[in-house]
Design goal:
- The protein is an alpha+beta fold.
- It folds into two domains: about 120 residues, 2-Layer Sandwich (Beta Polymerase, domain 2), CATH 3.30.460.80; about 35 residues, no CATH class.
- The protein contains three helices and twelve strands; from the N terminus they run αββαββββαββββββ.
- The radius of gyration is 22 Å and the shape is elongated.
């Protein structure tokens, strides 16, 4: 099947195709996502007929900021394929809800979390955040603490929203200093301090 996909490159422009541990990954131009997914779903040999997931990754330093990954599988061959596209911050992508019906909610999540606009989506509404929330939580420039705090008021018998008061602009730089020590420099101009931290290596 992988050899057949390479031959497919002659009739459909791939940016890249590779095989990693028997999992095929294809990178294509973002404007061809509909055509490509329709083709591999309907083709009598491939039959990638089940959309597993749509996920996004934010790379603010890149010109094409967002990486969008479509994971599609075929029950006939028990094989998965990852289809990747890259878009700029203000670019729109085409909905694939007319090809995979379950992409409806997945694309709404992509819009809600990253602010990637899905063109021709039948019902592009927020799915996880509140309707008054005007930010995109999975973007790298979104502060970990958020902008507002929600808490229940026993006095008012309701949930109230308050703005977080401490500064969101504080930036800390870490410099390695010794085996288990990091030199912490506060870039706001305060006196730097040294903190002893344990270093853990990732196992995956």
């Amino acid at each position: 099947m992988f050899k057949w996909l390479i031959s497919l490159k002659k009739c459909m422009p791939f940016d890249e195709i590779y095989n990693n541990k028997n999992e095929i990954t294809v990178i294509i131009p973002f404007n061809l996502i509909q055509n490509f997914l329709f083709f591999i779903k309907k083709h009598e040999i491939l039959k990638f007929d089940y959309l597993v997931e749509i996920c996004g990754v934010d790379y603010p330093e890149r010109k094409k900021r967002f990486e969008i990954i479509y994971i599609v599988s075929t029950k006939l061959y028990n094989q998965r394929i990852k289809v990747k596209i890259y878009t700029k911050e203000n670019q729109t992508i085409n909905s694939i809800s007319n090809i995979f019906i379950n992409s409806n909610w997945l694309e709404r999540e992509l819009w809600d979390m990253f602010g990637i606009f899905i063109q021709n989506h039948p019902d592009l509404r927020k799915i996880l955040t509140d309707y008054g929330f005007n930010h995109f939580p999975l973007r790298k420039d979104f502060p970990i603490t958020g902008f507002n705090d929600l808490k229940y008021s026993d006095f008012d018998k309701m949930i109230i929203k308050t703005k977080i008061e401490f500064s969101q602009e504080r930036v800390l730089n870490f410099y390695k200093y010794g085996k288990n020590t990091f030199y912490l420099l506060n870039t706001l101009g305060f006196e730097p301090k040294t903190y002893r931290l344990k270093v853990y290596r990732s196992t995956y």
